[in-house]
Amino acid sequence: MTEKQPMVEEPRPARRPAGPEGRPVRPAGAAGLRRPARRLLTLLFALLAFCLPASAQQSPAMRLKVIGGLAGVSQYVRFEEPFWTQRVRDISGGRIEAEIAPFDRSGIRGQEMLQLMRLGVVTFGTALLAVVSGDEPELNAVDLPALNPDMAALRRSATLYRPHLRDILRERYGIELLSIYAYPAQVIYCVKPFVGLQDLAGRRVRTSSVGQSEMMTAVGAVPVLTPFAELVEAVRNGVVDCAITGTLSGSEIGLTEVTSFIHAMSISWGLSFFGANAAAWEAIPADLRDVLRGGIGELENNIWNASDRETTEGLACNTGQAVCPNGKRGRMTLVPVTPADDAYRQQLLVRTVLPNWVQRCGPDCAEAWNSTFAPALGITASPD
Fold this sequence. Notes:
Number of helices: 13
Shape: globular
Number of strands: 11
CATH architecture of the domain at 62-183 and 270-322: 3-Layer(aba) Sandwich
Strand order of the largest sheet: 7-6-8-5-9-11
CATH class of the domain at 62-183 and 270-322: Alpha Beta
Distance between the termini: 133 Å
Helix content: 40-55%
CATH superfamily of the domain at 62-183 and 270-322: Bacterial extracellular solute-binding protein, family 7
């Protein structure tokens, strides 16, 4: 047996309050946890402190609905749709998501686009200037028939008129202009031979706008407004003898199979604008507006370069040249633009197209023309 040690009474720590069944109650908070639990909790707090600032910057992606251009054409398929469904997400770091539909498959009539955007029913939309000019003729001054016989002239016109176009959209419709798009050149296709504009007298010519119709009337032709989807059948069935449409789109829809001659002169281009309802635009954070402006500017530049390239490619494909990129070569004869033909075009612009546009549009349009185009072109519009 071991020897018993003498009992020495030592000071005792204060007792913890007793809980149920006489068990001591642990203090609340981390101090009352066992040491491993305290370490785990400390680690969790550290992780939260590290993660919260980053997560606080994340917010649900802003979702935009966009009405684009014409379905099925190169501009929409190769540029507009990929930009809005992919590129916008990338350049915004995932903060913007967008969906897009072509206006001719969205249930929206092109003629209604201005009013729908003004009301905010369409927040981001594309409108063909020739189509909406029925309500606002002043919008289409930049793409009047006979004004821009080549891409260089078109770029100059767009640069000159852009500030005025921006002001019209903002002040009259509450629309923020974000971009101007250009389709490939619209030229003249004919079944029978011709050597220039004056040779079209007496022929029935498919047109797609009031301005084109007025120009064809001035040369002695008979304009026939025909939807794009019905164009080939109209030529095949003899409803029209010639047609004005895009160089590349004409090749793609098979116009080369029913016509044999194509003019190198651009009659018009089919410009459109892309914009946003002003209130919806201002509701977007400023940094994201900057991101969108930069991206849309890049998109605009790509579309213009493609329009220039595809105008040339369309003529090459229609006439069966080896440089045709898609391999769909026609056998059409190219009608070159002669100096006499170009002089006649300018005469049509000065004597018919411009005066008729001013008559439809009013004195304000003459003033707009004279302040934007007249100094550069040397052509003055009379308000009478």
